[in-house]
């Protein structure tokens, strides 16, 4: 309007009135009182393709920076191969490192927090002074062993008896919290006050490979697969497990990372698993022989099979470029991407990451505490198995007399490893405790 003027004072007042409106804009996905489905759909409606692809990526700590997290909208980090922020890093160093990277994620346009993954099968041995428990095979050793002792990762198996493995899925509520009565089946559950999201692995038939060869072929019919190797996954899903990792191995010649029938049709559609499916370390690469021989095909096969989050862990830009091209050229449908991102966001919301994205030191006083160490030692004592008691059943060696008249020598390389690994019950930073050979 001609002749209309706004004084500097009025302009300042208008700006002061406008500022709170922009800052307090209501976003449904940030409202914890909204239903889970509403929060997920509201956030997804706001996301670009670039942001969705970023959520499907998990990279290693060694290549992560706050700038990388922000630029590529990275959905997850992991500590792989013993990687940590520093040798013998303290809890405070871990918290500061993770929070620094999380702040990179929170500074993005939508502020979607990242999820931090650790390979802590029997204790978080990347954290100095953490309590370490026996391997899974030790926890199940009072009954049976794995299906084929030649398998190089036999220590990751609780037992060859699937009923025992099913019983051991109680570790899931131990990690995630007890699922409430009436909670919908298949939906991930995490009591995020002091709990973490759990991962069931490796789907499926990992320990039944031919001749026990690691990452090899599990030769078994469909009935055998379901009755022997699948039951523990039923229990895991009922208990609200958040994520499931796919195996490097094959089933009757079909790579699990490319197995649409088992990952999507059976696990997701039939068993109603609604958490997210994650690849193993460079799992897409190993769809081909040799690995990474045809990465575009591997991306297509793996994402089509139903893998939602990809453990890349280093060359994430190659994955971004390949997947973007295949989506834009209708090779991979957008519906598959939306399914993956919806599942990832569901886990993040149920973990409470949007309300509590940053780590703190409130529980650091419990790290390596006496109660935890005693529990680990109790687990060791109860996992011991006597294979043979003396040369003859008529002359058992044990129990030893209370007053032995002769000195007793206990020796052997395997004993040395055992003493270090589990009797000590503690972690020594980045050392791979399962391969150490020194007695302390």
Automatic annotation (TrEMBL):
| Keywords associated with the record | Glycosidase, Hydrolase, Signal
According to its UniProt entry, one GO biological process term is: glucan catabolic process
- Locate the Glycoside hydrolase family 3 N-terminal domain: which residues? 48-144, 145-347
**What catalytic activity is recorded?**
Hydrolysis of terminal, non-reducing beta-D-glucosyl residues with release of beta-D-glucose
- The UniProt record lists the EC number as 3.2.1.21
Q: Where in this chain does the entry annotate a coiled-coil region?
A: none
InterPro entries, per the entry: Cellulose_Degrad_GH3, GH, Glyco_hydro_3_C_sf, Glyco_hydro_3_N, Glyco_hydro_3_N_sf
Keyword flag Transmembrane: no
One Gene Ontology term of the molecular function aspect: beta-glucosidase activity
Q: Pfam families of this UniProt entry?
A: Glyco_hydro_3
Instruction: Extract the signal peptide range.
Output: 1-24
Entry's family note: Belongs to the glycosyl hydrolase 3 family.
**Protein name (database record):** beta-glucosidase
Task: Please spell out the taxonomic lineage of the organism that makes this protein.
Answer: Eukaryota, Viridiplantae, Streptophyta, Embryophyta, Tracheophyta
């Amino acid at each position: 309007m001609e002749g209309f003027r706004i004084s500097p004072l009025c302009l300042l007042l208008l700006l002061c009135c406008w500022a709170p409106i922009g800052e307090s804009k209501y976003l449904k996905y940030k409202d914890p009182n909204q239903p889970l489905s509403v929060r997920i759909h509201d956030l997804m409606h706001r996301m670009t393709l670039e942001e969705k692809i970023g959520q499907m990526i998990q990279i290693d700590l060694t290549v992560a920076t706050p700038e990388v997290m922000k630029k590529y909208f990275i959905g997850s980090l992991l500590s792989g191969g013993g990687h940590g922020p520093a040798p013998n890093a303290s809890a405070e160093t871990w918290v500061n490192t993770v929070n620094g990277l999380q702040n990179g994620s929170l500074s993005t346009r939508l502020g979607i927090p990242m999820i931090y993954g650790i390979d802590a099968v029997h204790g978080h041995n990347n954290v100095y002074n953490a309590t370490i428990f026996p391997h899974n095979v030790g926890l199940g050793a009072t009954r049976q062993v794995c299906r084929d002792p030649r398998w190089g990762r036999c220590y990751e198996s609780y037992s060859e008896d699937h009923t025992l493995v099913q019983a051991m899925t109680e570790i899931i509520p131990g990690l995630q919290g007890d699922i409430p009565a009436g909670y919908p089946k298949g939906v991930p559950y995490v009591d995020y006050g002091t709990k973490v999201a759990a991962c069931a692995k490796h789907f499926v038939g990992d320990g039944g490979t031919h001749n026990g060869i690691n990452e090899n072929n599990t030769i078994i019919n469909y009935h055998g697969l379901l009755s022997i190797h699948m039951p523990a996954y039923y229990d895991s899903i009922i208990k609200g497990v958040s994520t499931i990792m796919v195996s490097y191995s094959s089933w009757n010649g079909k790579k699990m990372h490319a197995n649409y029938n088992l990952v999507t049709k059976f696990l997701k559609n039939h068993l109603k698993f609604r958490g997210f499916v994650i690849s193993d370390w460079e799992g897409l690469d190993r769809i081909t022989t040799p690995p990474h021989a045809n990465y575009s095909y591997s991306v297509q096969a793996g994402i089509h099979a139903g893998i939602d989050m990809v453990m890349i862990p280093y060359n994430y830009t190659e994955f971004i470029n390949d997947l973007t091209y295949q989506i834009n050229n209708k090779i991979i449908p957008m519906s598959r991407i939306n399914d993956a991102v919806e599942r990832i966001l569901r886990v993040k919301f149920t973990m409470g990451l949007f309300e509590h994205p940053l780590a703190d030191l409130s529980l650091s006083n419990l790290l390596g505490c006496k109660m935890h160490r005693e529990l680990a030692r109790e687990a060791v004592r109860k996992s011991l198995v006597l294979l043979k008691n003396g040369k003859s059943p008529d002359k058992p060696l044990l129990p030893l007399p209370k007053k032995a008249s002769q000195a007793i020598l206990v020796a052997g390389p395997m004993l040395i490893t055992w003493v270090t690994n589990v009797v000590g019950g503690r972690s020594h930073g980045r050392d791979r405790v399962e391969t150490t050979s020194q007695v302390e």
